[in-house]
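User: Hi! Is it possible to get a structure for several chains at once, not just one? Here's what I have:
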Amino acid sequence: MSAVHEVAPVVDAAHAEPYATRDEYAGAIGRIRSAAEAYYAGADLVMDDAAYDALLARVAATESAQPGWAASDSPTTTVAAGIAGGDVEHSTPMLSLDNVFDGDELASWAARLERVLGRPANGYTVEPKIDGMAVAARYVDGRLSQVATRGDGRAGEDVTVNARLVAGLPAELARPVTVEVRGEVFMTDADFERANELRTGHGGTAFANPRSAAAGTLRAQDRAYDAPLSFFAYAVHDLPGGEGLFHSAAMAAIADLGVATTAGPMAAITEPGVTATTTPTAATTDPEATTTSSPPAGMPLCATIDDVLAAIESLGAARGSLGFDIDGAVVKADDPADRDRAGFSSRAPRWAVAYKFPADTRTSRLVGIEVQVGRTGVITPVAVLEPVQVGGVVVTSATLHNFDDLVRRDVRVGDAVFVRRAGDVIPEITGALLDARPDGATAFMPPQVCPRCGGEIDRSQKRWRCVRGRACGAEESLAYFAARDSMDIEGLGDKVIAGLVRAGLVTDPADLYDLDAESLAQLERLGRTSAAKLVATIQGSKTQPLSRVLTGLGVRMTGRSMSRRLARHFGTMPALQAATVDDLQRVDGVGPERAATIAAELAELAPVIAKLTARGLTMSEPELPTRPAAPGSAEALEAPRLPLQREDGSPMTVVVTGSVPGLSRTEGNEAVERLGGKSSGSVSKRTDLVVVGDGAGSKATKAEELGIPCMPAEEFATLLAQLTAVRLG
Ligand code: IVH
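Assistant: Yes, the chains can be modeled jointly so their relative placement is included. Here is the combined structure:
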């Protein structure tokens, strides 16, 4: 198999660009074929899904622009051209599916189907598109007799031996029926992790992703270990008495026989308003359980394409929490009469279509490996990547988990690597394209000493740790906590902090609140009076608002203004800690990646937060003097307006530049928010007002150029004083 590597930008398949020359067209077909060969063979991927789809779309676009060039065995017209078949001939060809990528394309597909039928389809089903390996399983008198891979679509490879222990594909059906079920063999995320542990424990290399793990395991000749596999059926052939059954009913019938079906995962996520069938299913990773009866489940039945889209959206939203990989949804006409009428093209049915989700695995170039030391002294390798879109988010760095894993996977700087971002989790590198390694790629040398403090490394666990644990890096985090923009503890400078850490008096910010003047006075060059004063300042900082505590804790991906936004939104630390990743995304400026990081950071900081709470810190954010009502609402229009609120109650975007008398930069921004505005760091067309103080530079000039109103800092200070007076009065 030739090594092919594509690092492709995301391409809108509907608007793909035709190739300019016949050679380029032929080259693309060659690359598609090599990638498809590797894909169906279950070898580690040579191209990610999005790159494959993009190439295919360009080949299709070229064929419509230049029909004369079209190759007779083009991958647009034949199933998996060039892929080796096997010995087991399929009862009917195992076809592929056409893809759509958005609602408009789905609507066009439905309109085409409607044209062919001469009327709207009699209902659609929606099910997950499982990212695994297609198989056809034959049961004779209720016993599993033969399982074959898809192969070239006409004949596949016999994998009966390895398929015997697949969860969801019972060795014996509930009744002695002779039938063929088709579906996808896959590996759940949990089993994938376990399979890799087993495999690397046996001296092998880790699988790059669950799909290659499933394919590799299913096709392995001799397995030295067991890696659990699962199965979901998506079609049934020759079901006795099943002629004329709707798809949803046929799925229910085989679920009743004990086979797991794609209806299972839909049960929990079916949208209200969409009817769900009550399909029993046996979806589980426990092979024992597959022969017993199973809980009811539902495959959404949709009357219109709008209902279909709603069901697809629900599935997309649940994608990260299913526990296995899906790469889209499959929409099918439910009525067999519709199917017969619509028929097939040479490679795919016209009555079904795959709605592809944004790929959760992409390839990118690894430009560096950084070593990070966490708050607790955990040392982790982090990948620095060429920016790549994964699951709709631009990813520039990803975790490489741990050093053992990195060495085992033999990932090197310069390699093309697989970047996976499943659901809300932090992006990870699952492997490198070893075949496509560039010449200069150098092996990574794990650090010999802690890169932060130079101390020894404890390598006894998978996660390496600096032997100094929390004390490593304590000075940096304490200085950040005490800084003027955080808890503003005057007198707690670098020297005092270094002395405190050295004396073992303080390792985390909460320890500061246990200090007394006596122990402080033992530090070099700190007199009794200064010690007493410092203790008072530290104690006084307990009333600082939540936003400053958050800033001081140094939650990754949150600076001062994001800390304020989080604090205002949730009000108290317990509310913030209870927020889910979805809740966090409701805060202005928090996207999926940031939300996942914040949630992970808060979980890691939980012990320190608990200690701070026990020391009596306020941990809440004072409410704004007037709680802003929803912009545009009747309350907002009637409520007394704050100076920096627009007429509809929404906040003006305000930039403070230069110094405002009596206020630090953070205090200036806090003041903007207290006056009803939203502070921003840069001037643009969307800025409503610029507060100009002493020493203002380019921002003031830009505001003038753009004609944005400016307010002298003194006037701003007066406004603030008036508001404070009103509040006190
Ligand atoms: S229906 C005649 N349903 O996707 C077409 N396929 O890209 C039968 N797949 O070859 C396919 N989940 O291996 C169908 N719920 C699902 C599926 C599914 C995954 C796979 C299948 C197919 C490929 C097409």
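The chain has five domains: 13-82, 88-356, 363-458, 473-543, 630-729. Residues 13-82 form one domain.

User: Great, thank you!
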